[in-house]
Design a protein that fits this description.
The protein is mainly β. It contains no helices and eleven strands. It is globular and about 45 Å long. It starts with a strand and ends with a strand.
Length: 116
């Protein structure tokens, strides 16, 4: 089992920034592909960003140029730096370990609210 602890969510005004963190623990033998998803009521959970063990990244078109995913392999932790936030970024953000590639674990989620 892998446990994921997310933090960093909160309330921010449009144009502001937040940084999310996700620390993985448990049955971890090596760094796996990890990423961030988000979900709002009535919508499917969508992929926001992902990062491989080698540092390769990919982003949803809606966040390219605004969000940056990074990792600290020694700490089994990933981050999501979110800049130029928009109201449509409001969602619960979930950390994922494995990305459905053999393994698939989810965090509890951290809420991000972008509002004036």
């Amino acid at each position: 089992q892998v446990q994921l602890a997310e933090s960093g969510g909160g309330l921010v005004q449009p144009g502001g920034s937040l940084k999310l963190s996700c620390a993985a623990s448990g049955s971890i033998f090596s760094f796996n592909v990890m990423g961030w998803y988000r979900q709002t009521p009535g919508k499917q959970r969508e992929l926001v960003a992902a990062i491989s063990s080698g540092g390769g990244t990919n982003y949803a078109d809606s966040v390219k140029g605004r969000f940056t995913i990074s990792r600290d392999n020694a700490k089994n932790t990933i981050y999501l730096q979110m800049n130029s936030l928009k109201p449509e970024d409001t969602a619960v953000y979930y950390c994922n370990y494995g990305m459905g590639q053999v393994r698939n674990y989810w965090g509890q989620g951290t809420r991000v609210t972008v509002s004036s």
